[in-house]
Specification:
Layout: H1 3-7, H2 10-15, E1 18-22, E2 27-31, H3 34-42, H4 69-79, H5 85-107, H6 117-134, H7 155-164, H8 166-171, H9 174-177, H10 184-212, H11 221-235, H12 238-243, H13 252-283, H14 285-298, H15 310-313, H16 318-331, E3 339-340, E4 346-350, E5 353-357, E6 361-365, H17 367-372, H18 374-377, E7 390-392, H19 399-405, E8 406-408, H20 429-444, E9 447-451, H21 459-471, E10 473-475, E11 479-481, E12 489-493
Parallel strand pairs: 2-6
Antiparallel strand pairs: 1-2, 3-6, 4-5, 7-8, 9-12, 10-11
Helix pairs in contact: 5-6, 5-20, 6-13, 7-10, 10-11, 10-13, 13-14, 13-16, 13-20, 13-21, 14-16
Length: 496
């Protein structure tokens, strides 16, 4: 569905909120009606995920994204609990630390600026994952370090190589990537897969050993998965077996599969959202001031990041969250959420009328269309305007009262689905939101970004060029800008 990003809602304006694409191979139903989308996403058993489309993600094993039915319930029961408030606090602290290091790195480049926003946000997101998820902390610009004994790559470098080459990883079987004679890049990817798997197995065995010793776990995502699986296995009773309810834990291979999925889903998606909004801030500087006004007020009286308490500060940073919500609305990681009617016909209500959807039909809630349709987002639906997410009951009060009275707008159900909706909503939603808000606070309390024009390029021209770079995006595993390094951005401290 790569065409959907360029098309936005145009085809639905011409053909209606729902249309069928009929081919000799299969039928595809595209939906841009909020009520119908919400119905599809809430009826998980009637409109399951077409798991065959996701088998390529089972590189290390089955995971919560590649299974359905009772098997999905078993995975979800164990993979969702690790995303809790304790983990959110770790995400908050590590995101602040990484963002300040990244910001300082950008400031060092002075008036010439940097053109590595995408690369740098990828590093930041990777480091937040490795720390909050797996207990391995790195400095943002850390020098090359030696791998652990018995390894040829560090955990970070192995994971980074796998994620940066994920299209190769999912396209080529590991047995091919492990052949003795390969081009250098493919050989490096094959080695990274093997090294990453070795690290995961080591972490898994360490947690099992701690359980045997009745010792506390490390508290990271791997620990939670292993301990959750062990606890589920202990709770398995004969009554659960006879009732057909699957309550057993995950196998070792399934744990590895879910660890990989955590990294894949949590790395590129958040990093891309940060890079998109950073370029948009350079085009629309008024939104920098808008979000900085909130950050300065909320952080009034707070010094170093060690005093920035997650529980007190995160809930108050509603404008920071609005930046994320608006960026995901226009530049979300996926353009559709595939579902399937399987072997049964299904009824679906559209504009108050029931329609019968044939069996074996691919059903596609059109994320890009529903996120940009004027019916739900107004006549300026294609404009990046973060304030559309804020409602205020006291717009004329002084700043503190005004900010405290601001609340995040609740969109029409089914009209905003970057994390999906219903039972299969992304369990890492809060993880991503906490990471993003922390980065916004660290970047914009005392600093601003501006575009660096080319020779004889006016400010108006450079902003127009950046917008064209942002719009020139294509769908790979996720939506990505094609030429972000053509844009240079300069960062400076306010007043300097």
């Amino acid at each position: 569905m790569g065409w959907a990003f360029d098309d936005k809602y145009k085809m639905h304006s011409e053909l209606g909120p729902v249309f069928m694409h009929v081919t000799p191979a299969e039928n595809e139903l595209y939906i841009s009606d909020a009520d119908a989308i919400s119905e599809v996403l809430s009826r998980r058993r009637d409109f399951p995920k077409p798991t065959a489309m996701y088998k390529m993600l089972e590189i290390f094993g089955k995971n919560v994204d590649t299974v359905e039915g009772h098997e999905w319930q078993r995975h979800r029961r164990i993979t969702a609990p690790p995303f809790n408030e304790r983990n959110s606090k770790l995400v908050w602290l590590e995101s602040l630390r990484q963002a300040i290091d990244m910001r300082d790195w950008w400031v060092q480049h002075g008036q010439d600026g940097i053109n590595t926003v995408v690369d740098d946000t990828m590093i930041l997101s990777l480091h937040v994952l490795t720390c909050a998820g797996f207990g391995m902390s790195y400095h943002f610009r850390s020098a090359m370090e030696a791998p652990k004994p018995g390894y040829s790559m560090t955990y970070r470098d192995a994971l980074s190589t796998v994620l940066e080459n994920v299209l190769i990883v999912v396209a080529l079987p590991h047995k091919i990537l492990s052949l003795p004679v390969l081009p250098r890049r493919l050989a490096t990817v094959g080695r990274a897969i093997e090294q990453f798997k070795m690290y995961m197995i080591e972490m898994l065995e360490r947690e099992k050993q701690l359980i045997t010793q009745r010792a506390p776990g490390t508290g990271n995502l791997m620990s939670s998965l292993v301990r959750g699986s062990e606890e589920a296995q202990r709770r398995l009773t004969s009554s659960a077996k006879t009732s057909g309810e699957s309550t057993e834990g995950l196998t070792d291979t399934e744990i590895l599969g879910n660890v990989f999925l955590y990294n894949l889903a949590g790395h590129e998606t958040t990093a891309n959202t940060l890079s998109y909004c950073t370029l948009l801030f350079a085009v629309y500087p008024e939104w920098q001031e808008w979000v900085a006004e909130e950050v300065r007020e909320v952080l009034r009286g707070h010094g170093s990041i060690e005093t920035w308490e997650y529980e007190k500060l995160f809930p108050r940073m509603k404008r920071c969250l609005a930046i994320m919500l608006e960026t995901l609305r226009l530049f979300g990681p996926v353009t559709a959420i595939p579902k399937y009617t399987n072997d049964l016909e299904q009824e679906l209500t559209i504009n108050g009328k029931k329609y019968t959807i044939p069996r074996k039909t691919i059903v596609l809630p059109n994320v890009t269309a529903i996120h940009t349709h004027p019916r739900y987002w107004g006549e300026d639906s294609l404009l990046w305007r973060p304030s559309r997410w804020i409602n205020s009951s006291k717009p004329d009060a002084d700043l503190k009262v005004r900010l405290d009275a601001e609340v995040i707008r609740e969109p029409i159900k089914g009209s905003y689905i970057p994390w999906s909706e219903g039972a299969r909503i992304c369990p890492g939603k809060k993880f991503a939101q906490v990471e993003f808000v922390a980065v916004m606070a660290a970047l914009f309390r005392d600093h601003r970004v501006r575009p660096v024009p080319r020779k004889e390029e006016s400010l108006k021209e450079v902003r127009k060029r950046i917008l064209s770079v942002v719009e020139d995006s294509r769908l790979g595993i996720t939506l990505q800008m094609q030429n972000p390094k053509s844009v240079a951005l300069a960062w400076s401290q306010v007043g300097l």
